[in-house]
Amino acid sequence: MFSPGQHLSTSEITREGASESSRVELIPITPKLIAMDRATQKHESLPAELLTAPEEYRIGNNDVLYITVWDHPELTAPSGAQQQIDANGRLVRSDGTLYYPYIKEVQAAGKTVQQLRSDIAEKLSTFISDPQVDVAVLRFASQKVVVSGAVLKAGPQAISTNALNVVEALGSAGIDPVNADLSGLLLTRNGRVYPLNLDAINQQDAELQKVYLKGGDQLYLPYNDSKKIYVMGEVNQPRALTFRTRTMNLSDVIGSVGGLNQTTSNGNAVYVIRGVENLDVEPAKIYQLQAESPSAMALATHFDVRPQDIVYVGPANVTRWNRFISQLVPSASIIGMGAAAQNNLSEANSR
Predict the structure, then answer these.
(1) Do 10-42+226-315 and 48-54+143-221 fold alike per CATH?
(2) If one looks up domain 48-54+143-221 in CATH, what number appears?
(3) pTM of the model
(4) CATH of 58-139 among 3.30.1780.10, 3.40.1170.60, 3.40.1190.20, 3.30.1950.10
(5) What residues have CB less than 8 Å from 220, skipping those under 6 apart?
(6) pLDDT of residue 341
(7) What are 214-240's pLDDT values in tens digits?
(8) Phi-psi region of 279 (alpha: psi -120 to 50; beta: other; left: phi over 0)
């Protein structure tokens, strides 16, 4: 006799250590299993080329500079001191040069602020005795990074004399806290894509704040809509959960759906069903947590689930029986009503 409702029978599932021909393997969640998983996890370190010290800013095309020559206001502010400072800015043209009185064309692109300051001072010394020159960048326009994806303010950000790291760029763009996949951040530089884990920013050995951006870099923070955990069975709020970080443990999953249904669930029937890409080559795995004792949730806290896992909580035997009865009784009532009606009709005909 079969009772209605979905349940998982382990009688047809091969236990751990199954042969290669088995399609499904049942693996108990134990301290030994968790210790083995921890031992196989590798610490992900960032490539050395991403951890170099930030370079000094180099002036580029379309930057606007403010050049000060002390005691020579006619050179510092040729438009007049009463004008706004932008009106006296010097634009670095598309060929990398700018025009300056007396010395005419000056190559600016590719030089640091200090190098350009020294160059202008040297050239002016032919016309002015011991010129005191200062150079500042009014508008940074030559070097930009682009931030896109699950952020609140996507678009370009300028690189300035203050080095910009990954965390600062994302802070300026604003992360979408609901839809962002923090573990899937991608940095594209010179045609190469570097995966970064923003979720690791608070770890003790986090290196993400040491990754400084360069002009032309692209940051993409993906959406998390393709990374889900499906929670089914005897839980209080069956639904799909979305990954927002790289890891989510079984305890997080169960807690997010309101826990096990204390009336209908079987505490020893908590399963994590994990498929494989090629079922003909390797068996799918079903991990079982015997959560009848609350202490078993300590194991759940250390067991990480993966995207596309299915967490299924089976019903208690009495729940399956009650469901069977609940569907049988209405059917029996209908049959009884039909039999009574037929009996009443027979008695009426015999009179």
Answers:
(1) yes
(2) 3.10.560.10
(3) 0.70
(4) 3.30.1950.10
(5) 147, 148, 149, 185, 186, 188
(6) 46
(7) 999 999 999 988 888 899 999 999 999
(8) alpha
